[in-house]
Design goal:
Helix content: 10-25%
Radius of gyration: 18 Å
Bound molecules: zinc ion
Strand order of the largest sheet: 6-5-4-3-2-1-14
Number of strands: 14
Mean pLDDT: 97
Shape: globular
Distance between the termini: 11 Å
Length: 261
């Protein structure tokens, strides 16, 4: 039995997080807890397995906040710092010489190996270091009975993997955290997904991220049961932005849980 799948939003903020240090804007000074966004990441769990997508700079704080105990694998979207800099805080899950499975594209894995060479080097096996067991993603793979299909996305010069979560042919969720464009083949593949989780940085145009209206346009083609925006910057206040969105389209927030039964 692999359901329920529970997806917890560890973070929903853009690369700088919200609030932004030194900024006194309405959102950065808001008292609404949903306007407090750590760097984007999700935690997925089924009765037999738990994994995280990305480990941003606040990964440790996010784990403490959500009381995360179990972690069987780590999956990366890409190697931008807001998605990988919490890698070293995977240490509690590598105790007693346990090798933690790490899934990433060849390009992202190479960046992880360069940045955290001390963890990947077989000579530097210091007790207590992160011990990654690299799995190069070259197609769909399975975690906890959930089929994870990588979805190649365009995000400036970076190659990003989005992920489709499927169970017995049911398209449960698609996670497209960082993208400027969603290729037709990806839209086709995720059409009718139950939850579309998609980059929606702000209203103003941005060279590497979808705007709110661009994300809504993608959602219009995907036709999901529900759309959740993530990777949000301080130009979007939670309450005011959500009020103006059509039914079924929402802003995700840190700590939000989606359950698939
Ligand atoms: Zn990002
Ligand atoms: Zn601000
Ligand atoms: Zn990025």
């Amino acid at each position: 039995m692999s359901l329920p799948l529970i997806i917890t939003f560890l973070g929903t903020g853009t690369s700088q997080g919200v609030p932004v240090p030194r900024c006194a804007c309405e959102v950065c000074t808001s008292t609404d807890p949903r306007d407090n966004r750590t760097r984007s990441s999700i935690y997925a769990s089924t009765p037999g397995c738990a994994w995280v997508i990305d480990t941003g700079p606040e990964f440790r704080v996010q784990c403490l906040r959500e009381r995360i105990d179990r972690l069987d694998a780590v999956v990366y979207t890409h190697s931008h710092t807001d998605h990988m800099m919490g890698f070293d805080d995977l240490r509690p899950w590598c105790a007693n010489d346990h090798y933690l499975p790490v899934y990433a594209s060849a390009e992202t894995m190479a960046d992880l190996q360069r940045t955290f060479h001390f963890a990947f080097s077989s000579q530097a096996l210091i007790p207590g270091y992160v011990k990654p067991h690299p799995h190069l993603i070259d197609g769909p793979f399975e975690l906890g009975g959930i089929r994870m299909t990588p979805l190649p996305l365009k995000h400036g010069r970076a190659h990003v993997n989005g992920y489709l979560f499927e169970y017995e042919g049911r398209k449960l969720a698609a996670y497209l955290s960082d993208c400027k464009e969603v290729p037709d083949a990806v839209i086709e593949r995720i059409r009718g997904v139950e939850a579309l989780i998609i980059d929606a940085l702000r209203h103003r145009e941005h060279p590497t991220h979808l705007t709110v209206s661009e994300a809504m346009e993608v959602a219009g083609r995907v036709m999901p049961a529900a759309t959740w925006f993530t990777h949000i910057c301080h130009e979007l206040g939670h309450a005011a932005t959500e009020e103006a969105l059509p039914a079924g389209t929402r802003l995700a927030y840190d700590g939000l849980k989606l359950e698939f039964r």
